[in-house]
Design goal:
- Helix 7 crosses helix 9 and helix 7 packs across helix 10.
- The protein has about 375 residues and is α/β, with parallel strands linked by helices.
- The chain has a domain of about 230 residues: Spore Coat Polysaccharide Biosynthesis Protein SpsA, Chain A.
- The termini are far apart.
- It binds 2-acetamido-2-deoxy-beta-D-glucopyranose (3 copies).
- Its main location: Golgi.
- InterPro entries: Glyco_trans_31.
- Keywords: Glycoprotein, Glycosyltransferase, Golgi apparatus, Membrane, Signal, Signal-anchor, Transferase, Transmembrane, Transmembrane helix.
Length: about 375
């Protein structure tokens, strides 16, 4: 008697499971927008139509003489939505909990830069409480290469995400000219998952960032708490768009007509409030994407009537330390900095530990 009951019960359970599974599948298909609005920890689902090449781009003056990258920019600049391959919807503790994140580190990192991500996780980008405030980290990526290599790199990011829960990846080509797209996809993600995060550090994976100094600096804005404008970094004034099609920074008049860019912060690393991030995202809807990501952020700010602010501790072009026998990697030069340009992984590791040294004083260079 007993085994019989068991079999019947199991059969009923299995049938019930199948029905439930089937329902949730059809629910997914039929009501994407509803699922999306549920938010929380359900992964973001969106139906995507492949973004088509804009053939009218070929009518742009001199189009045929442009190099392939510049042609691609014009063909695909209207494409703003790409499916996510790796998502972390609960990164900030859900949209509502996201105000507990004081500083979100948003680091642009192509898949191939594995060693840089590893060293950042152990140094300035470590997730931790700093001066009583939470620091969280995401690396933002697209896809690279083709064929087997593309698969391998996607697998690498998958493995890293499983271990560290810090990778966001979208299905677009991770190229220099697509950095603006990457930035906007991140802001779209932020609006959905971390809208109340107080501040963000946005930067490259090869800079040295003193995240503890950043927390102290940001805590100085007593009445801000991320709800007011802040955009600070190394400000570039009156830069003119490069009109040489062979340059990586080429911007045809078709994309940007004025002779100078509005002021903007160099993209190596800058700080902004959650409020300003959302203002930029809102403004971006009405401004065609420009392939220079930092200049584009400046255009969005200008459109909102806001300006970036210069911070002396942000040195995307290095410290310019002068003099004979001076070690340019002397930690006391770095102690007061927020962001310094390109540093090798090994130097990054050493520097991060040396600036933690409580005895570190300028001038005490023989340690
Ligand atoms: C396609 O390209 C042409 C020429 O650059 C441009 O005027 C038009 O707005 C583009 N269309 C879309 C959908 O972006
Ligand atoms: C940007 O990404 C899209 C989607 O992968 C791709 O079609 C396009 O060629 C890329 N643009 C550039 C300039 O690399
Ligand atoms: C951005 O736009 C959304 C939707 O229009 C609006 O609710 C929100 O207040 C705007 N945010 C900012 C910071 O302007």
């Amino acid at each position: 008697m007993r085994p019989r009951v068991c079999v019947i019960t199991s059969l009923m359970v299995v049938t019930l499971l199948i029905i439930l599974l089937y329902q949730s599948e059809s629910f997914k298909d039929s009501d994407l927008t509803h699922l999306q609005s549920l938010g929380g920890s359900s992964p973001h689902v969106h139906s995507f139509q492949k973004c088509e090449k804009n053939m009218s781009a070929e009518q742009v003056k001199d189009f045929n003489s442009y190099p392939p990258i510049a042609k691609d920019v014009l063909y695909y600049r209207h494409c703003r939505h790409f499916p996510m391959l790796l998502d972390i919807p609960d990164k900030c503790g859900g949209a509502h909990g996201s105000s507990d994140v004081f500083l979100l580190l948003v680091i642009k990192s192509p898949a191939v830069n594995y060693d840089r991500r590893e060293v950042l996780r152990k140094t300035w980008a470590e997730e931790r409480l700093s001066n009583g405030k939470w620091i969280r980290r995401v690396f933002i990526s697209g896809t690279m290469s083709t064929g087997h290599e593309k698969k391998r790199l996607n697998k690498l990011l998958q493995l890293e995400k499983r271990k560290y829960n810090d990778i966001l990846q979208w299905d677009f080509k991770d190229t220099f000219s697509n950095l603006t797209l990457k930035q906007m996809l991140f802001l779209e993600w932020m609006e959905r998952n971390c809208p109340h995060t107080q501040f963000l550090f946005n930067g490259d994976d090869d800079v040295f960032a003193s995240t503890d100094n950043m927390v102290v600096y940001l805590q100085g804005f007593k009445r801000n708490s991320g709800k007011k404008h802040l955009f600070a970094g190394h400000v570039m004034y009156n830069l003119d768009p490069i009109r040489d099609p062979q340059s990586r920074y080429f911007v045809p008049e078709e994309l940007f007509r004025p002779s100078v860019y509005p002021p903007y912060c160099s993209g190596g690393g800058f700080l902004l409030s959650g409020y300003t991030a959302m203002v930029i995202f809102n403004k971006s809807h009405s401004i065609p994407l420009l392939p220079i990501d930092d200049a584009y952020m400046g255009m969005c700010l200008a459109e909102a009537g806001l300006s970036p602010e210069h911070h002396i501790g942000v040195r995307p072009f290095g410290l310019q330390v002068k003099g004979r026998n001076v070690d340019e990697l002397e930690p006391c030069f770095y102690k007061e900095m927020l962001v310094v340009h390109r540093m090798l992984s090994a130097d990054m590791y050493t520097m991060w530990h040396r600036i933690q040294d409580p005895d570190l004083k300028s001038g005490a260079s023989h340690r």
